[in-house]
Amino acid sequence: MFTKILIANRGEIACRVAATARRMGIKTVAVYSEADAGAKHVAVCDEAVLIGPPAAKESYLRADKIIEVALATGAQAIHPGYGFLSENAQFADACAKAGLVFIGPPASAISAMGSKSAAKALMEKAKVPLVPGYHGDNQDAEFLQTEADKITYPVLLKASAGGGGKGMRIVEQSADFKAALASCKREAINSFGDDKVLVERYLTRPRHIEIQVFADTQGDCVYLFERDCSVQRRHQKVLEEAPAPGMTAERRRAMGEAAVAAAKAVGYVGAGTVEFIANQDGSFYFMEMNTRLQVEHPVTEMITGLDLVEWQLRVAAGQPLPLKQEQLKLSGHALEARIYAENPDKGFLPSIGTLRHLRTPAANEFIVSQSSASIVRIDSGVREGDAISPFYDPMIAKLIVWGQDREQALAAMAKALAEYQIVGLASNVKFLQRLIGSKAFSEADLDTGLIERHHDALFPAAAPVAIEVLALASASLLLSERNAVNNAGSDPWTNTDGWRLNGSLQRRLAFVDDGTASPVDVMYEAGRWLLHHAQHQGQQFNQMTVLQQNGNAIEISLGDRTVSGTVVRQGEQFHVFHGGSHYVLGYVDPMLHAGDAEAEGGRLTAPMPGKIVALLVTQGEQVKKGAPLLIMEAMKMEHTIAAPADGLVEELLYAVGDQVSESAQLLVFKPA
């Protein structure tokens, strides 16, 4: 077994690999970019070496630099994690030439499965079912459109070297084909350095089911059952679970044996995932093979009780697989939710910022064994105070739960999500709560279009904020004002408790909920406050007394009720966590904003830092509402900026290739 390995990755997967290595007594070397100098994965490894600037292509994608560090530190092997160089055949080959063990499959297997079109050709020879499509080398736009017309619409354009949902476009009709192809190729070349695409028929209600396979150097290969990864947004997985709901033993065996056959066909070694598109009738088609450990591997660990990273290390060291196929057993049900820094209400745009406040449910790290009770596990590469930058994937954590059955696992996930608190950037926690609780997911009515099909239920109109939430925010504000005065000294003229010689002071706290004014009238009375919310016209003033405050946690009495929650203030926003939900209230200080003018119109701004990749209009052009104006690329995904109304493009402020910061004005637009 190795005594030292280098982990050529960052974030939660680097921490995950380090945890198993530490348990096995193996020393670890971390590599990091300038943006990750204070990152968690740097802290948890035994050594850490700086390898370059923040941009991945200048640091985590520098194969030569990583190999140089491995040799200099005495590492015997390199674990690539997932993403970055994990499926780079040239890197695997370079490791071998340098005398280092690549903890993954041989370069030949990566090459064979690395191209979606080449892999499908291999599977066709092996008589594995394939979705109708064109997987050849001819990339002429006219030819590809002709092939798409033959396949019949809708079709799916997919980057041949792609993964992670990047470089994929659904085309509903022939007239939209060329524009979608150009966009797909741009994203593919930027993400993978290869703009080759394949065209397939787009199945309307498919499920995404993948099989975890493992092979050793002795020629043995097993499958560790399946994962259902059907719930996706923008072709990227949101929730994963194992086993797949409704999976029969016969179908599991058929898919497992097909996956093993696919792995053996390319001389596979190590952990791999064979992905299938499955119809509702039980038929399935080969989609691709990911020649690495998957993001969602923890759900397989939870139902098998196995440490897949340990298996990777043992196999890479030349040891046989720890178990035979007949010894593998599955137990219970596991779910994984990907906690992302993103805004679901704005098309899942990634969010960038610092984790000012982070509280998680009580959980284990990297646990793989089952018990009679439900288990919560969190795999994360960030801590409170860390930043989510524009350079890398905006994942905050993977929240994994295990239960004796799917119902228990769902309950555990709902409880864990309700206890997650994130302030400092947008997150998808509230969306995940709605998704877990939706009728479609709870009843396992799964397919890759679930989020789109149930959009209205998953994105409901905002309900008026409850008086309890406003009371918690009010209490936090009033207490902070009192504490500020107490810290300033004992001058009675600066006292802000509301006491007056001939009566009590009444004031209005101007809170804003989802853009709607939600004011609270406050009156001081003999050691307590009286609150009134204008939207509750029939109510008298509620008596409010602070019972206790511990940091951000507040408990109050409101009338005859006791209300508790956590309130975190960030600038002019109050983040209130109450009853398992997260509310964001704006607070308008009338003195601070007394001189503010109305916001300037005609500004279209960047939703996040990124690069301009296409200008779709010219200066002086008249456009209709919703017309695409330009395309930005951020975090290797394309985002289209559209016209907010009919109007005139008066000035374009950036050219193609320009980098722009968040909230930068992109163009001058004059509404009609």
TrEMBL record:
- Name the Gene3D superfamilies on file: 2.40.50.100, 3.30.700.40, 3.40.50.20, ATP-grasp fold, A domain (3.30.1490.20), ATP-grasp fold, B domain (3.30.470.20)
Q: Which organism is this entry from?
A: Collimonas arenae
Domain Lipoyl-binding spans what residues? 594-670
Biotin carboxylation domain: from which residue to which, for each copy? 1-456
Which keywords, in A-to-Z order, does the entry hold? ATP-binding, Biotin, Ligase, Nucleotide-binding, Transit peptide
What are the protein's GO molecular function terms?
Answer: ATP binding; ligase activity; metal ion binding
Residues forming the ATP-grasp domain are 120-317
Instruction: Give the protein's cofactors.
Output: biotin
The entry's protein name is ATP-grasp domain protein
Matching PANTHER family = CARBOXYLASE:PYRUVATE/ACETYL-COA/PROPIONYL-COA CARBOXYLASE, METHYLCROTONOYL-COA CARBOXYLASE SUBUNIT ALPHA, MITOCHONDRIAL-RELATED
| Organism domain of life | Bacteria
Q: Does the keyword Protein transport apply?
A: no
One Pfam entry name? CPSase_L_D2
